[in-house]
Structures are given as structure tokens and as C-alpha cells.
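Sample intake — GNAT family N-acetyltransferase
Collected from: Sporolactobacillus mangiferae
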Amino acid sequence: MTVPQMQSTHLLLSTLSISELIQINNDEWDQMAISFDSEIISNSFQSAITKKIQKMNGINEKLHPWYTYWSIVDKATKKGIGLVGFKGEPDGNGYSEIGYGMSPNFRKRGLMTEAVKAIMEWARLNPNCS
């Protein structure tokens, strides 16, 4: 399966696989291809990742981009600085909620706004999303 990716002015975004989410949940950061800033994951994010893994195990792999997190990588530092993702595929009205988190070390720079705009561009490619 091709991993959906997006690029913006300052960021690279790509979907995380179930195995990558499990690595994050198990604090196995050193095994990841992306070097993430150590301040990203909080206890509430761990809980959200567990829920995402459970949902992804029960659906078609083609729908995973709607249920997983997308890594947010800062182009300047080449470091993973946050996660952003949908909470499922679009509903009957064409809407899907977005959840996100970012390292405090990279906040207040407009980077999360840039990341959300980028995945919204990807979502608009789906005819069921408005």
C-alpha cells in the first residue's frame, strides 16, 4: 500500500502504520524511521493511539489514513514534532473530526495550522469529504 504523504512550506506529513503506532505506544522511539522530539507524547495521546490501533485492526487497510495519525516532520530540523489525524472517515454529511498534538518546543509558530491545512487538502481529494 502506498503511504499517503503531504508537504507544505515547512512540514512533511505521512501516515503512520499500525506497527509504527504500536512502537510509539511501547515507547520504542529508537526503532522508528523518524526521530521524534521527546516532548510529543502525553498520557492522553497514548490512550488515543491505543484506540486508533484497535479501530485500524477492524477496518480495510485502504481506510487507515482516516483512522491513523500522520507524523508531522519539520523540514528544517528533520525532526518529528507532532501528530495529526482524522477520527474516522467522513460521515454522511461529509465531515470528519481532526485530533492533534505537538511538542511544546515547536508551538506558537503556526506549524499545527499548516499541518491541519495540509491534511485537509488530502481529505478534499475524497469525494465523500466536504
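Post-analysis note: Residues 73 and 79 are 5 Å apart (CA to CA).
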